Every structure is written in C-alpha cells, then in structure tokens.
Amino acid sequence: MSTVPRIGRPSLSAALSTFVAFALKASLWLWVVFNLAMLVWIFLNSVKSSRDIFAHPLGLPTTWHWDNFWTALTTSGLGVAALNTVVLVAVSVAVIMALSVPAAYALARLGGRSAGPITSLFSAGMSVPFQAFAVPMVLISVGLSRFMVEWITGAWDPRITVAIFYVALSLPFSVFVLVGYFRSLPSELEEAGALDGAGSFRTFLSIMVPLAKSGITTVTVLNVLGLWNETMIVLLLVPNQGMQTLNVALLNFYSDMQYTSDWGGLFAGIVIVVAPMVILYFWVGRRVVSGMTEGIGK
C-alpha cells in the first residue's frame, strides 16, 4: 500500500517573513517615489515666480522663469561659491586618494605586525562623532592661521585649513574600504609580477591599482558626495562669504529671504546645489553600490 506524501501548509514564520519582505520593499519604493517627487517639485518651483509658487505650489509654472538660475548665481554669490566648492572638493579628494590608496595597499598586502592595529585605528576613527572635533578644529585653525601669518607666509587662506580637515576626516573611511579591496585581490598576481622582475612600487602601480579600480572609483565618488554636501566645517572656519562653499552660500541666501522674498531664486539655488550630485549618483550609483558590497564584504 503506497502512501501519499502530505503537503503541509506554509508555516507561520514563512508567512511572516514574506510579509516583512513585502513591507520593506513597499516602504523602500515609497521612499524612492517621495524623494523623486520632491526633486520634481523643487525643480518646478525653481522656474516659477514667487507669486506663482504660492498660488500654484503643486502645479506647472504659468511662465517659465529660467532667469531665476541667473539671479541665484549672480546676486546671491552662488556662482563664486560653486567655484570655491569645485576647487576645494577636487583638491581634497585628490589628496585623499593619493594618501589612502598606497596606505591601504601597504596595510593590506605588505603585512607586518603593526598592519592590523593600524587598520583598527583607522576603523576606530570613523566612530568618533563630528561634534567632538568642532572645538579642536576651531582652535587649530586659529593657531595655524596665526602661525602662518606671523612666521611663514604673511598670509593664510582658511580654505586651505578646510581642505586639511577634509583630508584628515575622510582618510579613515577611505583607508578602511580600500584595505578590503586590496585584501580581496589574489596574491598570485604579485608573485607573477615578482617573477617578471617587477619591484613593489611597479607591482602596486601596474598590477594592483588597475585591479582595484572599482574600489578606488567607489571611494572617490563617495568622498566627492560627502565633501560636496559638507557645511559645518566651512561655517566654523571660513567667516568670509566670498570664500564659502555652495551649501553655506545657500544658507546665506535663505537668510536674505526676509528682505527679498525671492522664492524662485531660492529654489533655483537648491537645484544648483543638489543637481550635480544627483546626476553624478545616477551616473555611477550602481557601480558605487556594487563596489561597497564587494569591498566591505571581503
């Protein structure tokens, strides 16, 4: 007599897991739709007049005021601030990558007893909150500026101090992620390079750096995104409005709104600040996500 296998009902835990997964996906999609709707809303209001914004806050512009962007760039100082931001971010990220890539390679591949503790120190640096650095940064900035003016150069640009702190605060994360990438690369490649007569420096430049290109790209993009959106350090260290960056200039523009009520120009300023990073993330976002999972997971 043959027996018929019983088909059991799905367990309660499986049904609960399915529901939780569905709820999480639905929540994420709602969050994505909300953010996209906010971007569209900000853009539409950036080409409206102030009266049109309050009369039709959710509608299309009755007249497209593209001149709001020119007003934001010229009258609010966003044009100069954009140039300051581009230069500051480009220089800072270049120095960060020039320091973090060889440091991560040395910690990951060259070994030594101190490699593990030093890597742990870099990872511990990410856990210190920014507020702990605020007062020391101001004191160091004042002391450094006074020392350079009185003893070395006779003048000092506070944006150099900002770049120094950008580099110092970004190095722990950059080194930590890149160490994971270099550790994931097979050691046979270095051995093959040594058999061909390549030294350590040539092996690093010609073999390991090209292989870690995805990780280096990921860290570069994340640093650009982070420094572009940084506001507090510039607020603390750069009192001159002509030297400040986009986010601080936008805050100043918002403060001036009590006198001008140029809401269209303010929304145009927000677009000028946000649009470059949104375009950058849409361009390389998938590569950044895959790069993060590869680097940290190994």
UniProtKB/TrEMBL annotation:
Residues 82-284 form the ABC transmembrane type-1 domain. It is found in: Cell membrane. SUPFAM superfamilies: MetI-like. One of its GO terms (cellular component) is plasma membrane. It holds the Pfam family BPD_transp_1. Coiled coil: none annotated. The chain crosses the membrane at residues 12-44, 86-108, 120-140, 160-182, 263-284. It is a multi-pass membrane protein. Its main location: membrane. GO terms for biological process: transmembrane transport. PANTHER family: ABC TRANSPORTER PERMEASE PROTEIN MG189-RELATED, ABC TRANSPORTER PERMEASE PROTEIN MG189-RELATED-RELATED. This is Carbohydrate ABC transporter permease. It comes from Humibacter ginsenosidimutans. The lineage of its organism: Bacteria, Bacillati, Actinomycetota, Actinomycetes, Micrococcales.
